Amino acid sequence: MKKNILVTGGAGYIGSMLVTKLIAEKHNVTILDNFEYTKDSLNHLYFHKNFKVIEGDVRDKSLIKKLILNQNFIIPLAALVGAPLCEKNKKKAIDVNFNSILTILRNVKKDQKIIFPTSNSGYGIGEKNKYCDENSPLNPISLYGRTKADAETEILKHKNSVCYRLATVFGYSYRMRTDLLVNNFVLNAVRKKKLTIFEPHFRRNFIHVNDIVNAMIFTINNFQKLKANVFNLGLSSANISKLMLAQKIKKYVKNLKIQIVHNKKDPDQRDYFVSNKKIEKKGFKARISLEQGINEMVEIFSRSKTEIKNNY
Ligand SMILES: NC(=O)c1ccc[n+]([C@@H]2O[C@H](COP(=O)([O-])OP(=O)(O)OC[C@H]3O[C@@H](n4cnc5c(N)ncnc54)[C@H](O)[C@@H]3O)[C@@H](O)[C@H]2O)c1
After folding, report:
1. Which CATH class is domain 181-203+237-303?
2. I need a labelling partner for 235 at 20 to 30 A (CA). Which of 55, 134, 147, 171 fits?
3. What is the per-residue pLDDT across 66-83, written as a single tens digit (0 to 9) for each?
4. Given a cut of 60, is residue 312 above it in pLDDT?
5. Residue 208 near ligand 1, beta carbon < 6 Å
6. Which residues fall within 8 angstroms of residue 157, CB to CB, at 6 or more apart?
7. pLDDT of residue 252
8. pLDDT at position 275 over 90
9. DSSP state letter for 240
10. Domain edges within the chain
């Protein structure tokens, strides 16, 4: 059934792919974005009659209050994303990533539904060789991780909500990000023919951006059985080390040199496996393989010379 859906940050990496699918599914979609990076990511949708664009800021309380009215679903994606960006803009990070969520919660009615993505990046630090599930301690060390974890705690107080702790996302989007591990490795592999890897045995879990979109659509269609819950969301076959990832990329990029740097620490100390069983038992399983995502990005990065404006 057709829903009214507000997506904040709808022009972003996840947002632009999600909104495209929501429109294809015939929902009425409103996005709120301050277009920090680009407006072009939504060029293919502006003409659409079910699509409304509000250029504005999620810190604008009266705007949020007005936009929430009459929405069936609210999907808050607007954020300062990533630890480096939040470190550079501490106050703004707290206001955008956390305080704007409080504004939504103050104005939302009981029957309105929220779907919220956070990161699983607080798992696994100092938890070597452990499979992390939703009960594992989430101890984010970065300001970014803390703002997202705190927002998740607040959102779960609203019973009509579902939170997803996302694995590291990969794949092409209309608003491309190449600071994400797989995307960054593929870009460097294609453009520099060389990958330099610190602590190659560190393991991570990954998920294709279109599988996030599929999970959100699944959530809209199956909200009653999912609500008041938090789920890990990742591709279960993609719990792999950085070295294994580089070797997969090498199959698609001829003459790629993989250089392993010993005796140097990666600033990102995550090393963990993540269990996605809880959401899989509810009926959603991520299916888009790392190979498919790598292949698609190799094709795009090889053909397009467009500069990519990143978060950092
Ligand atoms: N991509 C990932 O790997 C990942 C992993 C875990 C969680 N998430 C979460 O998913 C959400 C979307 O992430 P993304 O990867 O699409 O990031 P992104 O940076 O591509 O998108 C964020 C969007 O929010 C907009 N925005 C920023 N500040 C705003 C403000 N003050 N007012 C209005 N709009 C604003 C930006 O213009 C951008 O379009 C974020 O909440 C992020 O924390 C992403």
Report:
1. alpha beta
2. 147
3. 999 999 999 999 999 998
4. no
5. no
6. 105
7. 96
8. yes
9. E
10. 4-170+205-235, 181-203+237-303
Summarize the confidence of residues 149-157 as an average pLDDT.
Answer: 97
Atom of ligand 1 nearest to the CA of 15: 16
Confidence check: pLDDT of 122 > 90: no
Token look-up 């600071």 returns 179
User: Is the pLDDT confidence value at 126 over 60?
Assistant: no
CA of 11 to the centre of ligand 1 (A): 9
The CA-atom distances, in angstroms, between 63 and each of 19, 68, 84 are: 20, 9, 28
Distance from the alpha carbon of residue 293 to the mean position of ligand 1, in angstroms:
20
Q: Is the CB of 279 under 6 A from ligand 1?
A: no
Q: Mutate which of 45, 53, 81, 146 to test ligand 1's pocket (most atoms within 8 Å of Cβ)?
A: 81
At position 26, the amino acid (one-letter code) is K
Q: What is the chain's length? A: 312
Q: Judge if the beta carbon of residue 78 lies within 6 A of ligand 1.
A: yes
Pairing of strands 28-33, 4-8: parallel
Closest CA to ligand 1's atom 6: 119
Question: Is this structure's pTM higher than 0.90?
Answer: yes
Kindly state if the Cβ of 58 falls inside 6 Å of ligand 1. Answer: yes
Given this model, what pLDDT does residue 311 score? 61
pLDDT at 31 over 80: yes
- Inter-CA distances, 51 with 29, 43, 114, 155, 175, Å: 5, 12, 19, 26, 18
